[in-house]
Specification:
2 domains; mainly alpha; elongated; about 85% helix
Length: about 70
């Protein structure tokens, strides 16, 4: 491949990349507010569950119970 062919190929590749990127960015965004609301609510539920689990695991009594179980084994 000659140097000029390589340069033309690189310029063409960059040009096509920019065109494709521009076409993707100009697509209208779909907004499904009900789906977003459902996801936000679900995330809040999951966060609350994680908080409860963290409380249980960091509870000193839970740690003591786990130590007793380990001793029984």
């Amino acid at each position: 491949m000659h140097p000029y062919e390589l340069a033309i190929a690189l310029v063409a590749t960059v040009f096509v990349y920019k065109l494709v990127r521009l076409a993707i960015l100009r697509q209208p965004t779909r907004r499904d507010d009900t789906a977003n609301t459902d996801l936000v609510n679900r995330l809040a539920e999951v966060e609350e569950r994680v908080r409860v689990l963290e409380r249980i695991v960091t509870d000193e009594r839970h740690d003591l119970r786990q130590q007793f179980k380990d001793l029984e084994s």
